[in-house]
Amino acid sequence: MNKQSEYISMQDYVLRVAIREAGYDEEKPVIRQIGLEVAPGQLIGLIGPNGAGKSTTIKTILGLMAHVNGEIELGGQNKRYAYVPEQPVFYEYFTLWEHLHLAASVFGMDERQFGPKAEELLERFRLTEEKHHYPTHFSKGMQQKLMLIIAFLLEPDIYIVDEPFVGLDPRATADFLRLLEGERERGAGVLMSTHVLDTAERICSGFVLINSGSVVARGSLDQVRAAAGCAEDATLFDCFHALT
Predict the structure, then answer these.
(1) Is residue 6 part of a domain?
(2) Is residue 108 part of a domain?
(3) Residue 29 lies in a domain
(4) The model's pTM
């Protein structure tokens, strides 16, 4: 068994999820028996077709579902998470820089640390010239970069990332993956929902495949292949189609 795919003890996780049922209506749960754990340095891919329950799972983890029967536990040094939504969220009358400053203030980031870190991230994502402009006028890709910069600025224990590659050009995607690798080396964990299966296969430590509101396979790629009844050289794409 892949060492990174083994279940982990309480003191070693940054996220543990044990959802028995959750949904918008108490009588009509959308997801059932969703269990997953993320260890420091792990990147777990949350995979499934549209309508499978990925978004509901993420909303449940974030505490946004009205009816939940289960437990969500954050670990790590600060028990802090950063959420990167698929659809960027921002204030209409705040500049890019003001968004960063607000996020830093909310999380109590030291002002002396904030400036250099924010400037570094802006340069990395090639948004330095836009820092005093309003994201309302940005392209979707630039707005997505803002979401990523805020997340990396906060250096959380766990990143919860929903379809991060949507709208990013190849250079921004490469920058994102390099920064994410650095955060994993720091000890942060990542739960990432994505439909980009070839990239997920290359970068993820393990996978949780959801279909019809429940987990159908989880673990390393070899474990997912076994659950799907696929050959030893089957791709994640092959397993996805076999299981969903």
Answers:
(1) yes
(2) no
(3) yes
(4) 0.91
